[in-house]
Amino acid sequence: MDLSNRAKVLIQAMPYIKQYSGETIVVKYGGNAMINEQLKSAVMSDIVLMQLVGINVVLVHGGGPEISSMLEKTGKESKFINGMRVTDKETIDIVQMVLAGKVNKSLVKLLEEHGGSAIGLCGLDGKMLMAEKLITGEDLGYVGEIKEVNPKAIYDAVNNNYIPIIATVACGFDGEVYNINADLAAAQIAAKIKAKKLILMTDIRGLLRDVNDESSLISVVNVSEVPGLKRDGIIKGGMIPKVDCCVDAVRSGVSRAHIIDGRIEHSILLELFSDEGIGTMFY
Known about the structure:
With 283 residues, the chain is an alpha/beta fold. 40% of the residues lie in helices and 22% in strands. The protein contains 9 helices and 13 strands. Strands 1, 2, 5, 6, 7, 8, 9, 10, 11, 12 and 13 form an 11-stranded mixed sheet that branches. Helix 3 crosses helix 4 and helix 6 (182-192) packs parallel to helix 8.
C-alpha cells in the first residue's frame, strides 16, 4: 500500500473512531481465529487498538477445539446433538477447567503481550451468568440456558480500564455448573450492558444468498427481513442460531450486530473502521 492509500485508510477510520470512543462493543471470539496463531495475534492487536482509541471492549469466548482435545486425552468421546455438545458430569468438569482455566488465562496473557490490559472472568464470577438446564427434545446434560445476567464484574473491570475476557460457563440456580453456547452468552451480555455493537466472529464470510458462492454476501439485513430469509432457505442450518442471537441483541437495544469472517486478518478493524465493512450487519 502506498503512502497516499495509507493516509486514506486513516482518514476513513477517523469518524468511526469518534463515533465509537466511549462506547461498549462485545466481541464473541471463536472459530479458526482462536486456533491459527497468526489470526490470534491479529485479533489481539485489533482489540488493543480498540482499547487505545477509547472503546470499551468485552471479549466473550468459547473453546470447543480445546475441550475436544482434552476429552480425547482422557479417552472420552465428544458427542454433539444439533451442534451442541452433550455435557455429562465428567465433561462439565473438563469444560470448566479448560474454558475458565487454560483458554481464558492464555487469552489474558496473549492480550497483555500485545500491550492491552485484561482480566479473566467466567460466568461463575459474581454470579454473572445464571442459568437453568436447557430442555430440548434430547437430554444434553449440563448445558444451560441463561436466565439472568449480572454485569457488576464486567462494569468493575471496564471502569478500571481492563478488558474483561469471559469464559462461558454459568451458575445454575440448582447449584450446578452449566456449559453455555458462546454466541448466546455474548448476545445476552451485549443486551444487558446496552452495548453499541455485538460482533460474532465465525469461519464463514457472513450471511450468503448461496452458501456455495462467497460473492453472494448479504451485507446488511433489517431484523424484520429475517423470517422471510428463513422461509426462503437463505438462513438455515448452523446460521439460524447465530442470526437469532443477532436479532435478539438488536431487539434488546444493541444498535448493530455483525457476523464477520474471523479467518481474515484484522476483520474486526475492517468491520468497525471502514466504509465497506466486511461481514453481515443486522440492524
